[in-house]
Amino acid sequence: MKFSLQKIKREAPYDFEDTVNVDELERMENDIRNITDVNVKGDVSVRSETYTFRYTIKGTMTLPCARTLVDVPYEFSVQAIDQFTTSEYQAQNDEDIHFIDQEVLDLMPYIKENILLEVPLRVYSDEATMDNIVSEGSGWDLLQEDEHLDLKAKHEEEEQEKVDPRLSSLKKFFDDKKD
């Protein structure tokens, strides 16, 4: 979403609405497995050299369930306010105002940032049952509690039967005493 600053200044207050593709967020290191095109709607007001963007971002992202790792659709709506200025002095004195040194403003990095800030730490699937749980992955398996206890008992039994090769001659010592 690119905006001409001259057009905004000429038509202020300037309203905008668009559907944008942000699927590159899926390839970043986060939990977003899929994200639909998002709807961005808002307005821009201009005061002196400051452009204030007030906009809403709506869409749906797919995240993994914290319990079962199944896909969970998560609808989001983000209210955002971003301020930009063409005055370098004003941008240096206020960290909430972004400096613009061009005639065209690209709002996409700010849209993506606001979406990433909206990703929740955990989501849970309402339909999470034992039937749709991901039961294995690369280097791991999901076990039921009784399977785990059986495997643990078997492992402990094997550990007890193993004899350290350095102590194998002592095992013969006790066999000789019985004779």
Automatic annotation (TrEMBL):
<dbReference type="Pfam" id="PF02620">
    <property type="entry name" value="YceD"/>
</dbReference>
<protein>
    <submittedName>
        <fullName>YceD family protein</fullName>
    </submittedName>
</protein>
<dbReference type="InterPro" id="IPR003772">
    <property type="entry name" value="YceD"/>
</dbReference>
